[in-house]
Design brief:
single chain, about 110 residues, alpha+beta, four-stranded mixed sheet, about 45% helix, about 30% strand, elongated
Length: about 110
């Protein structure tokens, strides 16, 4: 599994990068065999003005050509990563269960005369 972490109008420090990778490894642990790449983009919308302006966008690429995208907003970059990581776990789980049920439906339809 490959991690790519970028900052948009926000400098991504080494502790923030390490925290993001650790949090995503924990959230996506059960799905590791199916993951190929995880891209994270951290951003600061308002710049120095402050407010709820930190964003975290996570794009996960799964094995049978499935892409899952999640975005979260918050005051702090760490809290935003937490929120996005918990959302991406559910989104990946739903996406994989949908692909399994689609496969089952296809096999069931193919076996009927």
């Amino acid at each position: 599994m490959e991690f790519l972490i970028k900052g948009c109008h926000l400098s991504v420090s080494e502790p923030l990068k390490a925290y993001t990778i650790r949090r995503l490894r924990f959230a996506l642990g059960p799905f590791t065999p199916r993951l190929t790449k995880v891209e994270v983009r951290l951003g600061d919308v308002n710049g120095p003005r402050g407010g709820i302006d930190k964003t975290c966008a996570i794009r996960v690429l799964l094995r049978p050509l499935i892409v899952v995208f999640v975005r979260a907003k918050g005051i702090d970059a760490y809290a935003t990563v937490d929120r996005a990581a918990s959302c991406v776990r559910g989104a990946v789980s739903r996406s994989l269960s949908r692909s399994r049920s689609d496969r089952r439906r296809f096999i069931k339809d193919a076996t009927q005369p």
